[in-house]
# Entry
Amino acid sequence: MPAMTKCPNCGKTLKLKSEAAFGKKTACPQCSEPFTVRPYKKKQAKPVVEEPEYEDYEDTYGDYDDTAYDDYGGDDQYDDYEPAPRRSASSKSGSSRKNSKKKKKAAGLPPWLTYVAFGLAGVLVLGGLVGVVVTAVGGGGSNVIDLTWLPEDREGLEVTDTLYPDISVAQEPATVLLPDGGLFCIMRTMTGHIWYSLSADDGVTWRDPEVLRDAKGDPIPHPMSPCPLFRLADGRFLLVYHNNPGRKGEYDQFRRTWERNQSNFLRNPTFIAVGRFSAADHQPLRFGPPHKLLDTEGVTIGPKGTAEIATYPSLTEWRGHRMLWYPDRKFYLLGKHLPDSLLTTIDPDQVCS
# Structure
């Protein structure tokens, strides 16, 4: 193989008459920049290896032993973080946050297609919830996207923090579409209860947040944790929550100093409640009694050392089967079948009438 070098300035690969040129300075014939001649070898292409045909896998390991994680005592480095403060408009654009609409050109958007991306599913601004509606308008080659911040007063939904009344904690909302076209939004707070709000005009305006109540009128307790709400195919609604007010046994989220992450234990067990729509009620969703669905019994596993269960779940319905997919202590991903026979026992129309 002939001796070769490579110009470090332009990357040109050069053939040499002999290795005697190594260590000497020369000028690159392509870019004319001087450089010291050093050996260079082209990388050999890796041979293509055909993948073997795999036989059916046979589990010979038995049950997984997770006892090694039980005594993990480290501090929770994945705790909830505060949302970033609202960013001001770029000085380059000269625009102001007071403008309710911003326009950006976008290619390839059909003029008839309207995208609605209501930001209540995850936009947090200074502890309050805001939304954004994205609409594709225009025609031909000049499509325009209009961004409209909602609600119009731009303050968002706020719930006062119990420990620090000068801030708001209204986070991780779950929003469902009601049969009458209204938007029903619930959110986690630092009050020991779930709160909700209602919009009758597609998020332009919202009612002041209130404590979420069950069909008997009692506040629904819940710690600082996600509280997903799903609309089921049969018209009912399913609430997933923890049914404790942020205090349980030795754990208390209202302590000003946490020597141990309290949420790791307050987010367990997990309960469900069935909701029914009632247009005449001030709170248009009526929730039946709680049903304990999942319980880790306080046993911690995994690197986080948590006993929490079913935080951030999802739900699918297919061919008559209803499955709740959930993380078990943020270590396993599991599914739970929710048959009609179970939901009927906690349906407010059946047990609260």
The radius of gyration is 29 Å. The helical segments are 263-266, 340-344, 348-351. Residues 54-127 have pLDDT under 50 and may be disordered. Residues 213-351 form one domain.
